[in-house]
Specification:
Number of strands: 0
Helix content: over 70%
Low-confidence stretches: 213-221
Mean pLDDT: 77
Largest sheet: none
Strand content: under 5%
Shape: elongated
Number of domains: 1
Number of helices: 11
Radius of gyration: 21 Å
Order of helices and strands: HHHHHHHHHHH
Length: about 220
């Protein structure tokens, strides 16, 4: 990972020193962000931060940076989704233990809150990379996957680009305002905790409905 971070620094320096054309950088960024979106262990936020920094330095047009990063991310996610649609046959070969976990996740995505779940996962490193494959395995179609993925990816990409654009000033702000940083951290953890437990409870009910447990209980009473 350190070598990849060093590579990002080299790319940044080469653009700044005009040893690399902007179009070459665009191509590298597109491939980098697309592959990361498909699950390859590349520093996704690192590329976004450098792109934002290049915007701040005046080397990249802000609109072009936004379009590039969002399009690359969504492109990779859609490819993962399409690959996932080809992996549905593997679900029948999964052991019972993991089959229940997979059913749990699939019913979250296919349920009423699936749209919001697909938005939320774009903010969660690691989870977002494989959520696209799982969405492909589910009964969600590409159209219903594309919109929430684009929304979530757009919000996160623009946020990180803005951090890269502001550069060291944003880091100084959090260092000088440790209380603010701690408050943001607590709010974030609380928010994701609430979302997780709410979705967990919702998905358990969906699975019970599917298995007929609720129906059996009601008819028995």
């Amino acid at each position: 990972m350190e070598q990849l971070s060093n590579l990002l620094n080299v790319i940044y320096i080469n653009v700044i020193n005009l040893n690399m054309s902007i179009w070459t950088f665009y191509f590298i960024a597109f491939v980098w962000l697309s592959l990361d979106s498909m699950g390859l262990p590349l520093p996704y936020e690192g590329m976004l931060l450098i792109t934002g920094a290049l915007v701040g330095a005046g080397f990249i047009n802000p609109l072009e940076a936004i379009i590039l990063t969002i399009f690359s991310t969504v492109f990779g996610a859609c490819l993962s989704f399409l690959i996932g649609t080809r992996l549905k046959f593997l679900t029948s070969k999964v052991s019972t233990k993991y089959k229940n976990i997979l059913d749990h996740i699939l019913y979250l995505i296919e349920g009423e809150k699936g749209f919001f779940i697909l938005i939320i996962v774009r903010f969660l490193p690691g989870i977002r990379h494989f959520s696209s494959y799982i969405a492909g395995i589910s009964r969600v179609n590409l159209k219903d996957f594309f919109l929430p993925t684009t929304i979530g990816s757009s919000i996160w990409s623009i946020f990180v680009l803005m951090v890269g654009f502001s550069g060291i000033e944003s880091v100084k702000m959090f260092k000088e305002n440790s209380l603010l940083a701690s408050l943001i951290l607590v709010i974030t953890i609380t928010l994701f905790g609430y979302i997780y437990f709410s979705l967990h409870k919702h998905s358990k009910r969906l699975l019970k409905v599917k298995k007929g447990e609720i129906y059996e209980k009601e008819t028995t009473n």
